[in-house]
């Protein structure tokens, strides 16, 4: 069977993809399933499951199962820490928050979790993750040394590091609910100097910001808050379309 990593790379080869982030702590598994189905119909390529707080093995498992059942989309655990793990997901982003001041977020939690991930047989997808201003809750909880919005060179150096480490993806994160997404200039600078597939997220809630991220060179665009706040399917579809350039 094809790995989730290969699925993502194949889709990215045809253009920018959209991934929807669902926090299992924010609604019932049944409602998560409905959201995933709606997003699939809108053109979303994969579902990320995670949150900074309140995620348990229980709500992660039931949410992943409901999403899979209702949408059939690949489910990827986007972990907020090492304590929640579930074999109900199709894959896990095995990520390092590279610009954290806390060594646990860089490599400690990964060392703790790796044997369990191996034992459970979950596909792990290595990813470098860096937090850009404003950073929001994940920046705070993760003790990130935020990349300044006017410092694309720093973002480029991190992306090069992730690439040289052999990571499969690099994620520029402005933080969930950010009032400003990652600057397009920063996305473009990273894209111009690395080949590693680039994921961008945080604060993307409009077709305009999604389009700007795609045009700057994002390979995958993540939206979370939009799904929670918006009950207008037209807008959801418009954002996914703009993200994918359809
Ligand atoms: C958070 O990048 C994601 O990890 C999504 O952010 O909730 O602002 O869409 P939003």
Helix content estimate? 40-55%
Radius of gyration from the alpha-carbon trace, in angstroms: 16 Å
* Estimated structural class: alpha/beta
Shape annotation = globular
CATH homologous superfamily placement:
FMN-linked oxidoreductases
What is the CATH class name?
Alpha Beta
Instruction: Provide the low-confidence segments as ranges.
Output: none
- Give the helix tally: 10
Distance between the termini: 28 Å
* Tally of discrete structural domains: 1
CATH architecture: Alpha-Beta Barrel
- Topology as H/E string? HEHEHEEHEHHEHEHEHH
Bound molecules: SN-glycerol-1-phosphate
Largest sheet: spatial strand order = 1-2-3-4-5-6-7-8
Roughly what is the average pLDDT, rounded to an integer? Answer: 97
Percentage of residues in DSSP E strands: 15-25%
Describe the protein in words:
- The protein has helices at residues 4-13, 29-42, 57-71, 103-120, 136-141, 152-165, 184-193, 207-216, 225-229, 233-244; strands at 17-22, 46-49, 75-77, 91-97, 123-131, 169-173, 198-201, 220-223.
- The protein has 246 residues and is of the alpha/beta class.
- It has an eight-stranded parallel β-barrel with strand order 1-2-3-4-5-6-7-8, surrounded by eight helices.
- The radius of gyration is 16 Å and the shape is globular.
- Residues 21, 173, 176-178, 201-204, 222-226 line the site of SN-glycerol-1-phosphate.
């Amino acid at each position: 069977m094809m790995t989730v990593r290969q699925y993502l790379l194949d889709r990215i080869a045809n253009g920018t993809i959209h991934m929807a982030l669902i926090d299992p702590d924010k609604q019932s598994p049944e409602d998560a399933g409905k959201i995933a189905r709606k997003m699939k119909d809108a053109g979303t390529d994969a579902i990320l499951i995670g949150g900074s707080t309140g995620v348990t093995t229980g709500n992660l498992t039931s949410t992943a199962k409901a999403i899979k059942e209702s949408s059939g989309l690949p489910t990827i655990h986007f972990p907020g820490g090492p304590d929640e793990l579930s074999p109900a997901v199709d894959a896990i982003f095995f990520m390092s928050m590279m610009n954290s001041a806390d060594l646990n977020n860089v490599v400690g939690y990964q060392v703790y979790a790796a044997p369990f991930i191996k034992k459970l047989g979950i596909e792990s997808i290595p990813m470098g993750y860096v937090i850009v201003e404003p950073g929001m809750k994940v920046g705070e909880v993760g003790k990130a040394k935020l990349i300044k919005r006017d410092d694309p060179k720093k973002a480029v150096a991190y992306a090069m590091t992730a690439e040289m480490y052999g990571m499969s993806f690099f994620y520029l994160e402005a933080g969930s609910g950010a009032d400003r997404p990652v600057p397009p200039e920063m996305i473009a600078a990273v894209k111009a100097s690395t080949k590693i597939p680039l994921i961008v997220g945080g604060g993307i809630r409009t077709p305009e910001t999604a389009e700007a991220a795609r045009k700057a060179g994002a390979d995958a665009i993540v939206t979370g808050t939009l799904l929670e706040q918006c009950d207008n399917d037209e807008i959801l579809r418009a954002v996914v379309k703009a993200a994918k350039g359809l």
